Amino acid sequence: MEGKGAMAEPALSGIEAPSGKGRGDENFPVGSWLIRRDLRPHVHAFYRFARAADDVADNPALAPDDKLRRLDRMGEVLDGAPGNDAPAAAAMRVSLVETRITSQHCHDVLRAFRLDATKLRYRDWDDLMDYCRYSASPVGRQLLDLHGEPRTTWPPSDALCSALQVLNHLQDCGDDYRALDRVYVPEGELRAGGARVEELRATQASPALVAVLDRLLDRTETLIEAARLLPRAVASPGLRRECAVIVTLAERLARRLRRGDPLARRVKLSRGDFAAAFLRGFLRGRA
Is 90 exceeded by the pLDDT of residue 171? Predict the structure, then answer.
């Protein structure tokens, strides 16, 4: 999920610990008007569930054991355990019953956030991609399953979701390190580039760190290239257009990160980027 910087004071009375972030804080549309109207509530339910789990994992006021306990409880409620202490998980359970979609995508997301609660470093690109398999890929798979799309659409969707996840990690690399001591920039990439993890605390990226981030963007753009196959593989017209929009947003964000310095200021998409991506994506997604 996007936005891992400073957070509002959490409400800790229940299992969930909302940060106040929502769909408008993301780099991509969440259940936009392009999605079939009858499916939008289910898209939003999945987003709220994932957002709630993300907020628990990213909450600096919670100890790792407490985060794991809360995430485990969300999984129990998702599977039908009684109680009103995890409303996003309970709502997601209702959505799964109504749509008859597997709960596996939700449990995969919980697995990723359990990692976030305890794992602070990643060895290499493959280690990071394994994390994205659980933190990012289930988002696209859930959306595709809701629309009844075949599993042949999963590989390009996984590539798109992983690209968005890495772009978000690069956006927030300084905030993640300063607030949570969590670093998604792989240690092997840092060593190979002659950079140190402590440089993420600076207010400006060093030349060595810039080179490391550029290499990660090179890898991410390879994922985006694979993701360009997704819209043409999707049968649902609205979802096809939304996928094309999101691919276009990923392209734009990668270019912005290539030109910007995420330690100096948060590199993000503008309203103009969103407007242009919707127009171009809508046209790209027609065929």
Answer: yes
Contacts of 141 (CB under 8 A, 6+ apart): 105, 154, 157, 158
- Of 162, 141, 164, 121, nearest to 234 by C-alpha is 141
Q: Is the dihedral of CA 136, 179, 26, 248 positive or negative?
A: negative
Q: At residue 162, what are phi and psi to the nearest 5 degrees?
A: -65, -40
Q: Is pLDDT of 167 > 90?
A: yes
Check if the beta carbon of residue 67 is closer than 8 Å to that of residue 59. Answer: yes
Residues 6+ apart with CB under 8 A from 186: 122, 123, 124, 125, 127, 128, 216
As a whole number, mean pLDDT of residues 78-82 equals 95
Tokens linked to 80: 């039908």
For residue 50 the two structure tokens come to 């994932």
Nearest to 233 by CA among 120, 144, 108, 110: 144
Quote the CA–CA distance of 45 and 23 in Å, as a whole number: 11
Cα 226 to its chain centre, rounded Å, is 18
Averaged confidence pLDDT in the chain: 91
Q: How far is CA 29 from the centre of its chain?
A: 12
Contacts of 34 (CB under 8 A, 6+ apart): 238, 239, 241, 242, 245, 282
* Candidates 3.40.190.80, 3.40.630.30, 3.60.40.10, 1.10.600.10; CATH matching 119-287: 1.10.600.10
**Positions of CATH 1.10.600.10 in the chain:** 119-287
User: What's the CA gap between 17 and 11, in Å, rounded?
Assistant: 5
Locate 55 and state its tokens. Answer: 């907020």
Q: What pLDDT is attached to residue 19?
A: 60
Please report which confidence band the pLDDT of residue 287 belongs to, taking 50, 70 and 90 as the band edges: low
